[in-house]
Design a protein that fits this description.
The chain has helices at residues 33-39, 60-67, 73-82, 90-97, 125-134, 191-205, 242-245, 263-271, 278-295, 326-329, 351-360, 365-382, 394-407, and strands spanning 7-12, 15-23, 26-31, 105-108, 120-123, 157-162, 165-169, 177-181, 212-217, 220-226, 239-241, 306-309, 315-317, 335-340, 343-345. The chain is of the alpha+beta class and 424 residues long.
Length: 424
């Protein structure tokens, strides 16, 4: 089937659930009648922004959800050029890349089954190094076709674990890890080492976080992240990021309007009715927001938070991922990604802003304060036990200091040499 064909079959957990049609920025999605009969109208299956229904769904929500499965930036442009497609052609790109996407969704050409034989091709150490070294472009052996996709702007390659080695996830095969080399043009120094440290700190604090480690491939250091939307027995867990859940374009991943309700409040409003314990869902989100503030994560936008959607419609927070203390490594990285309590600048955010934000979600003041303060207290202790590598070793002390300052009602400093800012 040509990438220019105008329809794709959509599968979830290997089951056919509907048909995606359209061209350019105009796309429609229609759920299968048997899916509607089984789950019921208005239930959540694929996305909070695309509830199950009998009628065909049109409009930006469809494009934004499916476009959100695709990479951004230079990687997307390169893949589009290599396949003779325009960069905005999400349907065309999903024809090529949709066999293995984030979560449990697959988009396949008509007549293609997700139950076909898995095509995982073992890779030599040299082949893996060649692929990683070539990013953000691709230097692949002729028989390695790209059929997997993840959103995001950073260059990464998706591979499958094969015993002690790696395999290329051809069509039908499940990728289990992403390998992300140190960016060639990032203004943030030591980004991968800092991300690895932040993920380990989050786990030490008791927050769900993706597992990761650093590894060198040829001449490039990379972070190897175990996909949290894949299980050890080789199955998919469904998930979507906040832009998809709120029908937002990937290009709108940073919240810019301070007009209430905040984006996070809208997310809670949409997700809470589908949670088993809506109070715990709010606490989990507030803990995640608090952790990203205390570490100074200036990349905590709506594509770097996700929810898990269980079969049957239950929604939970996904593990944390793409964590990095960017503000503490690069001063201009001062955007919190979301409006929190009316503020989006990391240099000005305090515990009071977090509490205020939680209250807008329906939390009690005491519950919001206790949830956020517990994270800060644990960070203050754990940051001394999760050793950051030499070039960023100052993060251990700095993040502990930041936690103490936030607990004291102050803004958190950006560097150890700074004087403590006045309370806000």
């Amino acid at each position: 089937m040509s990438p220019r064909n105008k329809s794709l079959e959509v599968f979830l957990h290997g089951r056919h659930i509907g048909v995606l049609t359209g061209s350019g920025l105009r796309m429609s999605f229609h759920y299968d009648p048997d899916v509607v009969a089984e789950y019921g109208a208005s239930s959540v299956l694929l996305s909070l922004s695309l509830p199950v229904g009998r009628k065909k769904i049109d409009g930006p929500a469809v494009y934004n959800y499916f476009d959100g499965l695709l990479p951004e930036g230079q990687v997307r442009s390169h893949l589009a050029s290599e396949n003779g497609l325009s960069t905005p052609d999400a349907l065309g790109l999903l024809t090529i890349l949709g066999a293995d996407c984030a979560g449990a969704v697959q988009t396949l050409p008509a007549g293609t089954s997700p139950d076909g034989p898995a095509d995982a091709q073992p890779m030599t150490t040299e082949e893996v190094a060649t692929v990683v070294e070539a990013l953000p472009t691709w230097d692949l052996p002729d028989d390695f076709a790209i059929t997997a996709s993840l959103g995001g702007i950073q260059s990464k390659v998706l591979l499958s674990r094969s015993g002690d080695g790696w395999a290329w996830p051809g069509r039908g095969a499940l990728s289990t890890h992403l390998i992300k080399p140190e960016p060639l043009d990032s203004p943030v120094p030591h980004l991968l080492a800092a991300e690895d440290w932040a993920l380990k700190l989050a786990a030490a604090v008791g927050l769900p976080a993706a597992a990761a480690h650093l590894e060198t491939f040829g001449s490039r250091q990379a972070i190897v992240v175990t996909r949290y939307d894949r299980t050890p027995n080789g199955s998919r867990l469904h998930q979507e990021d906040f832009t998809q859940a709120l029908a937002l374009a990937s290009t709108s991943k940073y919240e810019t309007s301070p007009t209430p309700p905040s984006r996070l409040a809208r997310l809670v409003r949409a997700a809470a009715p589908h949670t088993r314990d809506d109070r715990e869902f709010r606490r989990a989100l507030l803990r995640a927001i608090t952790f990203n503030l205390v570490i100074g994560n200036g990349d905590a936008h709506s594509k770097n938070y996700s929810i898990l959607l269980r079969d049957g419609g239950e929604v939970t927070m996904a593990p944390l991922y793409d964590l990095a203390p960017t503000l503490l490594l690069y001063a201009p990285s001062n955007n919190s990604g979301h409006i929190v309590g009316g503020q989006s600048r990391l240099n000005y955010l305090t515990l009071e802003h977090i509490v205020r934000e939680g209250v807008t979600w329906g939390m009690d003041v005491g519950d919001a304060r206790e949830s956020a303060a517990a994270v800060l207290e644990r960070v203050a202790t754990a940051s001394a036990t999760v050793a950051a590598p030499g070039e960023i070793g100052f993060l251990n002390e700095l993040v502990a200091v930041r936690a103490g300052e936030l607990l004291a009602g102050m803004r958190a400093r950006r560097a150890l040499a700074d004087q403590t800012p006045a309370a806000h």
